[in-house]
Amino acid sequence: MDAICLKGKVFSGKGEGAEFLNLPWVRKQIKEKLGFTPYAGTLNVKLHKDSINLRKVLTSARGIKILPQPRYCRGKLFKACLMGTVVCAVVVPEVSGYPEDVIEVVASVNLREKLQLFDGDLVDVKIML
Fold this sequence. Notes:
The protein is α+β, with helices and mostly antiparallel strands. It has one domain (3-128): Riboflavin kinase-like (Elongation Factor Tu (Ef-tu), domain 3, Beta Barrel), CATH 2.40.30.30. It contains 4 helices and 7 strands, in the order βααβαββββαβ. It has helices spanning 16-21, 24-34, 49-60, 111-115; strands at 3-11, 43-47, 64-66, 74-82, 86-94, 102-106, 122-128. It has a 6-stranded antiparallel β-barrel with strand order 1-2-6-5-4-7. The N and C termini lie close together (7 Å).
């Protein structure tokens, strides 16, 4: 399997993704490893039932490691494409209790603005493994 396609609905998060993406060491690693400087915020996607099992593949897949500073959790990135048009990445935090029905998408732009997305809108994300 080279890629998986996950589908779900956009929802508003708590702003934790923005805080994480504003950390200099996170920004630096995303720029070095993915080739873009991330917009300070993630697009939160609540997965459809049939995508939840597929998302589990990301837990065991290699991905691109984010090496944390002390007191932060580890994480992985996967190159992706949102709605077949926007190059992006999916962040998979390696923290216990992280919801298995949620993915967070990062890109160089504000994805809500670029694609005119609102809470409840359906999206699909093709994730390279």
